[in-house]
Specification:
heterodimer, A: mainly alpha, elongated, B: alpha/beta, Amidase signature (AS) enzymes, 2 domains, 11-stranded mixed beta sheet, two-stranded antiparallel ribbon
């Protein structure tokens, strides 16, 4: 008989899923910025970025 | 019209109130009764505030009888997502106990609506901490075996079920537009920063935005005007709308067909469709999710350290994972945001666009138990799929609105998303008014 996963299992699964997501997202962003000539690496993000466009 | 019909038709409700055919107290009691009746089925409310609602209703009734016809929201009931404070009513954020409080003051957005005579009837359920795209506690009024979407799922369900003709929500990565689309209602994420966020629990400070849902564009526009966002934009007959057909084709076939048909209707009504290519939506999604993870970990870190069990296991894990992200990864995500903003700005400026149209969510509401869904020959995560088309406007901060543009083969609503220019929310609402008039919401696509 199976029931809902205990909180500790859910926590561990979610933590690992988030870590994989973070690694994938970070890698994708890094690659995209390197690919773009005009990705201004010197730009300091504003504290409260203005909406755009 | 019956009271139930009036709750789903704010313009008719206003006329009935002004003509004295129905009283504010009567309408409020009807909304409370309908909410209670539907609670076992769709679970839209975390808390119904009978006493507070009837107090507000009595005041609105008195003002109406003393001064005659009032503004478009006067006497209409509304729901408040349970991350937004309503004085005297518990705020619980969908958590087991973290962040629970009974606020002494209401959020400014609640005060804005009550100042316009609207009547708050309670707190609508949210995905925990507004950090998720499902809202498990709520069910879809179109089919209660299916999700509402999230995180403002209770607000969307309450509007979609005809309990209230207006509801407040929040949108950090699509949390107004996603459930509005699934529940067949209109949802507006305004330009970020225009509506005040005081009295609203934070998730990610660079993206959190308060917004509105209603059964139609007019109710949302009235709510927007009442909150000081603007008034009706002048009528126009020329619109330029960007379209990326490759992006639309990435949605499930019925969703893509409904959106393309809606665009055809817009084109026939005089809008000019401009074929363009959007920036990489996956990059936008990555930059958005990293920002949310880091910023939510920062916002909730002290409470997490003090009482980890006050959060559910999935959100607790997300907060812990967010705290592990290195500073350079966060900064790169913000650089990616700036790069995407420049791309989107060029897209709008170069083509003189008023808006960009795309699907709201790639699929219609999935069964509540489903964790994965298949289309286009691929199996995907239900949760992560929801924000595919939504993260872009969350990242840029530009206004975005969803409106129904048809249904799938099972009668489940499909939403079309319109992205506007920052601080031109009134234009976006005017275009949405046209779209609502010319696009049938109930045409079926398979």
């Amino acid at each position: 008989m199976t029931g809902p996963a205990p909180d500790s299992d859910l926590y561990e699964q979610a933590l690992e899923a988030n870590r994989r997501l973070i690694a994938r997202a970070s890698e994708g962003i890094r690659a995209a910025l390197q690919d773009e000539d005009d990705a201004d690496q010197d730009t300091v993000p504003p504290l409260e970025p203005e909406p755009c466009p | 019209m019956s009271l139930t019909e009036l709750l789903a038709d704010p313009a008719a409700a206003r006329r009935a109130l002004d003509d004295g055919e129905v009283g504010v107290l009567e309408l409020t009691r009807a909304a409370l009764a309908r909410a209670a009746e539907l609670q076992p089925t769709i679970g839209a409310f975390a808390e119904l505030s009978h006493e507070l609602a009837l107090e507000h209703a009595a005041r609105a009734e008195e003002a109406l009888r003393a001064d005659g016809a009032r503004g478009p929201l006067h006497g209409l009931p509304f729901g408040v997502k349970d991350v937004i404070d309503l004085a005297g009513v518990p705020t619980r954020l969908g958590t087991p106990r973290a962040g629970h409080q009974v606020p002494a003051a209401s959020a400014a957005v609640c005060d804005g609506l009550t100042a316009a005579g609207a009547v708050p009837i309670g707190k609508t359920v949210t995905h925990e901490l507004a950090n998720g795209m499902i809202t498990p506690a709520a069910r879809n009024p179109r089919d209660p075996s299916r999700i509402t979407g999230g995180s403002s799922g209770g607000s969307a369900a309450a509007v979609g079920a005809g309990i209230v003709p207006l509801a407040l929500g929040t949108d950090t990565n699509g949390s107004i537009r996603c459930p509005a689309s699934h529940c067949g209602v209109v949802g507006l994420k305004p330009t970020r920063g225009v509506l005040p966020r005081d009295g609203v629990a934070p998730l990610a400070w660079t993206q959190d935005t308060v917004g509105l849902m209603g059964p139609g564009v007019a109710a949302v526009a009235d709510g927007w005007a009442a909150l000081g966002g603007g008034s009706s934009a002048p009528a126009r007959d020329a619109w330029r709308v960007g379209v990326d057909r490759a992006t639309i084709a990435a949605a499930a076939p019925s969703v893509a067909a409904a959106v393309l048909s809606g665009l055809e209707s817009l084109s026939e009504s005089g809008a000019e469709l401009i074929e363009l290519k959007l920036p990489d939506l996956r990059l936008a999604g990555s930059a958005s999710v990293l920002a949310i993870l880091v910023e939510s970990a920062e916002a909730w870190g002290p409470k997490l350290a003090a009482d980890a069990a006050g959060f559910g296991p999935v959100v607790r894990a997300a907060l812990h994972a967010g705290a592990e992200i290195a500073a350079d990864a966060y900064i790169e995500a913000k650089r990616a945001r700036l790069w995407i903003c420049r791309r989107v700005r060029s897209l709008f400026d170069d083509a003189a666009l008023d808006a960009f149209a795309l699907p709201t969510v790639p699929v219609t509401a999935t069964p509540a138990a489903a964790e994965r869904v298949s289309f286009g020959g691929r199996e995907r995560s239900v949760e992560s799929l929801q924000s595919t088309f939504l993260a872009l406007a969350s990242l840029t901060g530009q206004p975005a609105l969803t409106l129904p543009c048809g249904t799938d083969g099972e009668g489940l609503p499909v939403g079309m998303q319109l992205l506007g220019r920052a601080h031109r929310d009134d234009d976006l609402l005017a275009l949405a008014t046209l779209a609502e008039r010319v696009i049938p919401a109930d045409r079926q696509f398979v």
